[in-house]
UniProtKB/TrEMBL annotation:
Source taxonomy: Bacteria, Bacillati, Actinomycetota, Actinomycetes, Mycobacteriales
Record-linked InterPro entries: Amidohydro-rel, Metal-dep_hydrolase_composite, Metal_Hydrolase, Metallo-hydrolase_Enzymes
Gene Ontology MF annotations: hydrolase activity, acting on carbon-nitrogen (but not peptide) bonds, in cyclic amidines
Pfam families from the UniProt entry: Amidohydro_1
Full protein name: Cytosine deaminase
Amino acid sequence: MRHVDRIAGVGLLDGRVVDVDISGGVVVAVTEAVTEAVTEAGDAGVDITGAPGAAVVDGRGYLALTAPAEPHAHLDKAMSWGATRPPGCDLGAAIDAWRAFAVTVDQDEIYERARVAARRLVSNGTTAVRTHVDLHTEGDPLRGIRALVRVRDELADVLDLQIVVMVRDEDPADRARAAIAAGADLIGGAPHIAPDTAAETHRLIDLAEELGTGIDLHVDEFLDGDHGMLTAFTDRVASWEPGRIRTAGHCCRIGSMDATGQAAAATALSGADVGVVTLPVTNLYLQGRTECTSTPRGLPPVRALLDGGVTVAAGADNVRDPFNPVGRSDAIETAMLLVVAAHLDMDTAWHLVSDGARDVMGLPPAGPVPGRRADLLLVRASGLDDVIAEAPADRIVLRAGRVVSARAAVVVDPFLTQASNRSSVLQEAP
Ligand SMILES: [Zn+2]
């Protein structure tokens, strides 16, 4: 993976065409494009062949975006749909199917699926992932954590990987402590499915405070009632020091509240500096299955939360597992769903899967701006509408100024001779 010194002639979201200079993994200058400096590299648009001198990527025809970040994944579950095939399609059925399968898998099996899912994310442009990882009741309770630590070590050059240990109410505190000692970064869990939601919420926050970690909880992943979790969470972490990670995933219930309830939730979340992660593909799949009329979407009210000053990010959650049988491991898919299901404009949708996601994850800012880390997605497109509508295949992914994936579509026109067809750079897997 060669360091890139310059991306030449690339487009920005504001319409400018610029040269982006990179040094030490950071964008150091963004200036009006000097076209004669561009190396002619043909249709593929990439010259990273290792020739002596400066490494220049021909960015003509591409748009430079902040590389996406995935703020809420379950890489230990990913790609298990074929092996699990739950009989039902709601959250309870998915949990039952996963737990039945989980007792049969070892560390290597989890590692293999997680690695495939992580690599797919990178090849689509994502350079940072936060994954939740289950503890296990039978066998080694930490085998999922160990598998993901191995993936993190192996892909350290191409991906920032944060590991959240999913602590269940039946897990003793020592098991959670062991998971953090084994390499997990954050305490997590889903207290809304515990018998005593408020008590479990407090227990997990106690653990995070004892261990000096941040926390990322599944919050109110349902549509009716009140388990008393949101205020228990926000009241406790409101006094935490600035910058200490506190994240609420899902928050589906807020979306079924009236406007007054939504405003109160937004005030509590923003006051406690809790970042919210909405997960459209999985919650559109899991939620609202008992409502045949005006079926709810199962998403939090993203626009109302943003207007209330809440930091919001968006991710995919589950990918091709009992909780969601579909998904492409592609942030552009999530952005598209935010446009159609959360009614966001394109710019806001993209912000939630890129800069907003990095913010919720506590990562330094990235993007084609001087002083920011050179985590960039170059995608062949004329504008963000092109990106979100088409999800173009031609993408170049930089992480800290190095190309970690480059791929282009092979275009075959059956009405042209074979020699006229373009075949270009194929994917370089991380
Ligand atoms: Zn989740």
